[in-house]
Design a protein that fits this description.
The protein has helices at about 15-35, 65-70, 75-80; strands at about 5-15, 40-50, 50-60, 85-95. A hairpin with a 2-residue loop joins β2 (about 40-50) and β3 (about 50-60). It is built from three helices and four strands. This is Quinol monooxygenase YgiN.
C-alpha cells in the first residue's frame, strides 16, 4: 500500500495587489499540474476567509518520486522563480500519509 507523500504550504502575500498576481501565477501553474502530473494526486489551493492575503496549499503525491517529478516540471520551475515577488512569508510542512480516506490509502 502506498502511503503517499504530501505537504501543506502557507503563503502570505505582501498586499492585495500581490495576492491577485500570486493567484494568477497559481492558476497557470495548476493548469500544468492537471495536464502533466499523473503522480500528483491532489493539489488544492485554499483561501482563508479572515486572512485575505493568505493562501494554503494542500499537495498529495503518490510518493516522494512523484513530488520530485513535480518539482522538475517547467510550470513548477516558473512558479518557484516568480512567486517571491508577491510574498511576505512562506511556511512549509512536509507530511507522510499514515491512514484515512483518499487515493494514498
Amino acid at each position: 500500500m502506498s502511503r503517499g507523500f504530501g505537504l501543506v504550504v502557507r503563503f502570505t502575500a505582501r498586499d492585495l495587489d500581490a495576492v491577485r498576481g500570486f493567484d494568477d501565477l497559481v492558476r497557470r501553474t495548476v493548469t500544468g499540474i492537471r495536464e502533466r502530473e499523473p503522480g500528483t494526486l491532489a493539489y488544492v489551493v485554499h483561501s482563508v476567509p479572515e486572512e485575505p492575503l493568505v493562501r494554503v496549499f494542500y499537495e498529495l503525491y503518490a510518493d516522494r518520486d512523484a513530488f520530485e517529478a513535480h518539482e522538475q516540471q517547467p510550470h513548477t520551475k516558473v512558479f518557484l522563480e516568480e512567486r517571491h515577488q508577491y510574498l511576505a512569508a512562506t511556511e512549509v510542512t512536509f507530511l507522510n500519509a499514515e491512514f484515512g480516506k483518499g487515493p494514498a490509502q
